[in-house]
Amino acid sequence: MDLKQLKALVTIAETANMTRAAEVLNIVQPALSRQISMLEDEVGAILFERGRQGMILNQEGKTFLEYARRILHEVEKAKAEVRPSSGTVSGIVNVGLLPSTSDLLSSMLLRRLQQQYPEIRITITAGYAGHLQEWLEVGEIDVALLYAAKLSSSLNVQPLVQEKLWFVSLPGNGLRPDKPVTLNRMADKPIILPSRPHGLRVLVDRVGRENNLQLHVVAETNSMSVQKRLVLDGHGYTILPSIAIAEELALGHLEAAPLTDAGLSRTIVLARSRERNMTMSVKCVMQTLSECIRTGIENGGWAHAQWIAKN
């Protein structure tokens, strides 16, 4: 098995056409077919269904495709790390951001990296904490912001931010920043929550169980934008950190009050896998991301958050 065979697999899957894949790889189609046949022999399984519509990945092929992409990506990262660059830091770094933080941090992070480390290339992935942790553990991303709750021992983490969660609604329901509320008081309201394994949902469920509360959950979603949209359209209330609703609060589209229940605050950590070598490019991105977060808090972009890192 070699990289040419893996590239052939990925290219055919992406183009969905043998002729087009051969053009992209700049080889003749019979040679491309031989590479796939050799790969299937090596794997010991048929990866494509061959028919009138061409070559379509079967279930075995779809499974192998994920690994092939990961291997090729790791090779590209390794080449970027070891390529001579006159002493400058270079490499490809995959960064995972929580949806509530991506608007504030993504542009700032890219701008600072371009200024300080122009040879580093980043890929930014926004996702819920549970998904980011899974991707971090299997090596699909290099560094991520996560909630501190229930983190795997395979991760190296640095706590950065502490912030309360807020109860959110349309204007006119009496929610104010200077008048905190409890989850018990709001338990009978129609609530829209993130779906599991979102870290925020884990916190809310745990506090509900500890206080014997039966929350009136009317909808769940794996999208923060959908979560806010449903509230804006009058379907109920929700629970979010203040950073996720800063713009809507400023425009008067939503109102909110902090929740005072013990446990209804989130600690955000900067995490990476203990299993993987920390390259200089990853180290530089982690440091820059921490600086961006601190700047966001200090300039008011991340209101009601507390910087708790020790450095």
From TrEMBL:
Species, as recorded: Advenella mimigardefordensis (strain DSM 17166 / LMG 22922 / DPN7)
GO molecular function (one): DNA-binding transcription factor activity
Transmembrane residue ranges: none
Gene3D superfamilies: 3.40.190.290, Winged helix-like DNA-binding domain superfamily/Winged helix DNA-binding domain
InterPro entries registered for this protein in UniProt: LysR_HTH_N, LysR_subst-bd, WH-like_DNA-bd_sf, WH_DNA-bd_sf
Positions in coiled-coil regions: none
Pfam families per UniProt: HTH_1, LysR_substrate
BP GO terms, sorted: regulation of DNA-templated transcription initiation
Keyword terms of this UniProt record: Activator, DNA-binding, Transcription, Transcription regulation
Name this polypeptide is given: Transcriptional regulator, LysR family
Similarity field: Belongs to the LysR transcriptional regulatory family.
Top-level lineage group: Bacteria
Limits of the HTH lysR-type domain: 1-58
